Amino acid sequence: MSDSDWKPLQAPASLKGRGAATAMPHRFERLDRQAEDDGWPQDDEEGAPAPPRTEIREEPARRILSRNDSPDIGFELSINPYRGCEHGCIYCYARPTHSYLNLSPGLDFETRLVAKANAAQALREELSAPGYRPLRLCLGAATDCYQPAERKLRITRGVIEVLAECHHPFSIITKGAGIERDLDLLAPLAAQRLFCAYISLTTLDPELARVLEPRAASPARRLQLIERLTAVGIPVGVSVSPTVPFINEPELEQVLAAAQAAGAQRAFSIPLRLPWELSELFQDWLQRHYPGRAARVMARVREMRGGKDNEARFGSRMTGEGVWAELLRQRFIKACARLGLGRQRFDYDFSRFRPPGPAGQGELF
Length: 365
Known about the structure:
By secondary structure, this protein is an alpha/beta fold. 30% of the residues lie in helices and 10% in strands.
């Protein structure tokens, strides 16, 4: 059974605090499972489906640095301390990666997480390799490094401590308020041109954010993050990504203006991408929350993706193609120019890098 053939027995109800409504099959699934009522009560006292709990499994990572060979991404290395993300953003392009764990890109992606418990030690070993040379590095490029699990596990902080010790430049992209906890490490690094932050801000509408990104910080809280980071000298950019036609796309200029007023200096924006199972998940979400717009949204997405739900080619996957993609790009460029928001990458000082010493023997600054 292919994921494109899958349909639930009945339209699923939305689950409070979750982006997906079902644990849809992944593309490697060999079994066809169907839900069946066995007569036993499954609901809570109010008659709604019992909310799924978040489960976190800690596993060691053999390597923590992922290398990027894509010419349309602004960094060469990335670190993702977690697989899966409790924020539950329905549009997340990383959802299909849960299929490699034999888990669903739907509910499993946001409820069955993997924490790379040894991330800091693995990073120390890789940075200590004789031939290692520093390149542009981003934390949280696929799954948010400040999702709720980080409050207790502190894996991201451990990674930052290693990067700080060896003066390795890096950036963080997040929509989590947890980044404030680590300002004691991040602000001194920014002063040495070793760190910048990007805050993901897709909408200013709290109601839309609640169903689009159910467990992420509110839009108002993210604007506060920009202000707080800027106040301690950290250069901040804003990611207005993804832009979803007829959903958050009409707000593009307003979101950029609010971010700039809060202190953002740079900006980028990427049209919605729907790789693999994400297309089915997102279309299900549209039918649950915006049924009157669903057909128009998907028609516009396909216009910008060569008639398909997704186009993975380098050069177009981050920009889209066609008339509508170009109009969206021009709106973004003109808004950034009017607001004084740069679109270039932040400048780092790579000359400060020194390989880290044995664990526990380094100096942070």
